[in-house]
Amino acid sequence: MKNLLSLLWTFALIFAPWLLLGALIGSIPGYKLYEYVWKNDKFCTSCHVHDYASIGWKSSIHGELTTCHDCHHQALIDYAREGLALISGNPKFPRDLHHTPYVPRHICEACHLTDADRSSLTGPLSSDEVDKLPKVDRLYLHNIHLNKQTRVPLVSTIPLGQMNEEMKTFGVFDGEPAPKLRERRQIICTDCHGGPANRAHDISVADRSCVRCHANTHRTQFVQQYGCRNCHYQDFLTPLGAMPSAAKIQD
Question: Of 35, 70, 155, 187, which is most buried with the most CB atoms under 10 A?
């Protein structure tokens, strides 16, 4: 037993420095590989060649401030499944995309809520830089909307067979109310920043999203001519404390 321990100790003294040196040398390319996989959009776009989405994302403000993994969270096994689907099915996009993408609320909140879990963020922004981004709970109309409930269904929850009918009236100023759910649900980010008007990673708000809830807000042709955002855009970026009714909201 003593001879075995002595042999192991001698082995450790001889090889440990070399193993340590190898680990130090390997950590540099290892970190660079990790950085490329999780922090560089080129890793994803080398396979996911869908110009309609890539251009929409790259040309938006998110294209400069995020990488793919900031929003696309999934298990490692799903990457293998996607690769198999791409090879076996050879899908064409957007033709073969038969659903409206749905972005869970917590993904948006990671950057745009005052107190949020940021553990999933991998993009180029530092924690201090994320602190400087607009926080929706501190912005007037954002705060109002996120504290309200609605009976209008999320577009992403509409069955595929009904989507074509929904698309005919989505965002049309015809005074026809959207179909209603039996029970109210909390308003979330994709009620305004999603749906058919935002299928290409742009995530900006379109008047078509407003109309689903506010089709009958204005009784004249004014809104059809000038749209919603010409009047209301600034209030979505106005700090909560700057509005006269802010005290009531905070209470």
Answer: 155
